[in-house]
């Protein structure tokens, strides 16, 4: 190597452009942004709940519970209509479109407004997840980093999958699932070892940042024993079947309802998220006063954790199951800013818990299996709805750190995935883009390579 070349490589800007260094930068940024986004949503949501519950009169609490998601939807709708339309929905379709159709270009404006609208929409109580918006946030950040460092061609485009991986890793504390999700959801049409390596590096860094700040604990607090292989685990079969049918029902209903809102020509675009939030608030409030559980609002982590630990039983599980399906469809389809990852996991948990509850009741088995069945349901519904079968297995394991159920989890998830795919072939994020008249150009990268 010539001495001049050696000096050129030591230039700080050139060092930043080296792939490994870029992946570290993206991982650090995405980890920090994901944590701030998470904490911001919790801060807003917790304070709104405190305000609601501090009221002296029950009717006033009910009014505030109904109006909170509606007001959040109104603010979100106005900003989407007037300022940044790309900050609506989950954010994963936007990231996919940027990768396949826009040469990997996303803007800082999208990053900023995705953060703001996600905090408002989810924090106000709309039944949406933070994981999809985190993916969009991190993909946008990665794209901006690539633009600042003046990356070109394939090196620039791979910033999108690297950012997506870092976003999933930080949102779920699940670096392995982050890699498989990017492969299953984004890169099925091409496979590049270099890109996968970048995703791994950034995902590990992002997850490490999340763990340093928020702790080593998994995202869901599951206090379950290590199960030995037992006959009761055969409930993974009915759970898988139900996960396939209901997962497909959930997605198809969401798409049809979203189209219905799009066809409401006489209703202003900015008003639609408020309508969805208002209807969601009514249903969530009725459920709250019926079963005294708040899980239909926002992320629903408390009720989800209670179900995973066998603390929710019987009729309550059924109400939360169907209620969460309905309010998520309304919140998302009307134009809210948030994803369907967390709601899908919540719905699946309630479904699995109910099957476990019935099994425990009729066969006089220790109720500890209810939590195990909840994990199976979480994975099966996720596989049937999102259609990423390998990710659905890894993400449950990484979020709960319980490996003893891996065999029935894998079996049930594959049943759910195959049943859902047989009923109707669907890739929800592609279908959402098609609904908006956007078709991904899977041949574009081959033309540029």
Jot down its keywords:
single chain; 449 residues; Clc chloride channel
CATH topology of the largest domain: Clc chloride channel
* Rg: 22 Å
Structural class: mainly alpha
Number of strands: 0
For the record, the count of structural domains works out to 2
What is the makeup of the main sheet? none
Q: What's the layout of helices and strands?
A:
Blueprint: H1 3-9, H2 12-16, H3 19-53, H4 58-82, H5 92-101, H6 108-123, H7 131-148, H8 153-157, H9 159-172, H10 175-185, H11 193-214, H12 236-262, H13 272-291, H14 301-308, H15 315-333, H16 341-363, H17 369-386, H18 389-400, H19 406-423, H20 428-435, H21 444-448
Architecture overview:
The structure is a single chain. The chain has 21 helices and no strands. With 449 residues, it is an all-alpha fold. The longest helix is centred in the N-terminal third of the chain and has 35 residues, at 19-53. Helix 3 (19-53) packs antiparallel against helix 7 (131-148), helix 5 packs across helix 20 and helix 17 (369-386) packs parallel to helix 19 (406-423). It is globular.
């Amino acid at each position: 190597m010539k001495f001049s070349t050696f000096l050129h490589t030591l230039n700080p800007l050139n060092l930043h452009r080296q792939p490994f260094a870029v992946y570290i930068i993206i991982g650090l940024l995405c980890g920090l942004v994901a944590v701030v986004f998470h904490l911001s949503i919790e801060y807003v949501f917790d304070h709104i709940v405190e305000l609601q519950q501090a009221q002296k009169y029950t009717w006033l609490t009910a009014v505030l519970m109904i109006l909170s998601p509606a007001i959040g939807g109104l603010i979100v709708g106005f900003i989407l209509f007037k300022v940044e339309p790309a900050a609506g929905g989950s954010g994963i379709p936007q990231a996919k479109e940027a990768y396949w159709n826009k040469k990997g270009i996303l803007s800082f404006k999208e990053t900023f407004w995705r953060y703001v609208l996600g905090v408002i929409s989810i924090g106000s109580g709309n039944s949406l997840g933070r994981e999809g918006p985190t993916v969009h946030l991190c993909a946008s950040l990665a794209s901006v980093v690539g633009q600042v460092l003046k990356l070109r061609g394939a090196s620039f485009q791979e910033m999108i999958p690297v950012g997506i991986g870092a976003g999933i890793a930080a949102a779920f504390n699940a670096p392995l699932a982050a890699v498989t999700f990017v492969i299953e959801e984004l890169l099925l049409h091409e496979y590049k070892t270099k890109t996968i390596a970048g995703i791994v590096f950034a995902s590990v860094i992002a997850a490490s940042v999340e763990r340093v700040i928020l702790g080593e604990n998994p995202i869901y607090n599951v206090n379950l024993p290590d199960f030995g292989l037992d006959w009761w685990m055969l409930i993974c079969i009915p759970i898988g079947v139900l996960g396939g049918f209901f997962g497909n029902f959930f997605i198809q209903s969401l798409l049809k309802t979203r189209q219905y809102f799009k066809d409401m020509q006489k209703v202003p675009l900015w008003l639609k998220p408020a309508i969805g939030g208002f209807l969601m608030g009514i249903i969530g409030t009725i459920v709250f006063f019926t079963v005294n559980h708040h899980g239909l609002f926002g992320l629903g982590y408390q009720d989800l954790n209670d179900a995973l630990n066998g603390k929710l039983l019987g009729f309550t599980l059924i109400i939360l199951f169907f209620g969460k399906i309905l309010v998520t469809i309304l919140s998302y389809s009307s134009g809210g800013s948030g994803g369907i990852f967390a709601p899908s996991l919540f719905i699946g948990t309630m479904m699995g818990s109910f099957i476990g509850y019935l099994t425990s009741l009729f066969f006089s088995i220790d109720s500890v299996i209810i939590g195990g069945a909840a994990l199976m349901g979480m994975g099966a519904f996720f596989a049937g709805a999102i259609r990423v079968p390998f990710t659905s297995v890894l993400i449950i394991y990484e979020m709960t750190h319980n490996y003893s159920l891996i065999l029935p989890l894998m079996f049930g998830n594959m049943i759910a995935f195959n049943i859902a795919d047989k009923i109707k072939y669907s890739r929800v994020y592609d279908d959402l883009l098609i609904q908006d008249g956007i078709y991904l150009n899977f041949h574009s990268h081959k033309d540029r390579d």
